[in-house]
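tool=predict chain=A
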Amino acid sequence: MYAAVALHVISVVLEVGGIVTTVWDIRNARRNLRDFIRRPRHAYASSATVTSEAYSADVVTSDTKTLEQRVEDLEEWRRSVPEALDRRDREVAARLETRLQGDLEGSRRSVQAQLVEVSEYLEGGLQSATVSYRGPAALFVGVIVGFCGNFVALGGV
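tool=predict ok
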């Protein structure tokens, strides 16, 4: 009789302890998740460098030019404008592409780092493997001990 009572007391203690531990672990997991979400994230900077270039319009005057010389110079300049514009467009496109690739690489590294952190969190990297199973294990052992207490009370042993 005393053995059955002792087993029932042990069972109650284990079951209550298992429930309390499980509730405590759930509260801690919520707090850990909240802290994880609020934690500052690392954002990788762009690897592209910012360059600036100023185009200057040089005006060189030497002698007084005749109208024909001025028209000829103007015609020569007009013929060189499309090539200069094409060259400028290629340079600007190359700079923009470099800058965009750098920005994309920084964004990719930032997102990848965050995904790794979330994966580690979801896999339980922030807690030991035994933390989440202590409460259910104690509850299970308590139920088994309670069953043994009932078996002893029935006179099965």
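Residues 54 and 88 are 12 Å apart (CA to CA). Residues 67-122 form the longest helix (56 residues).
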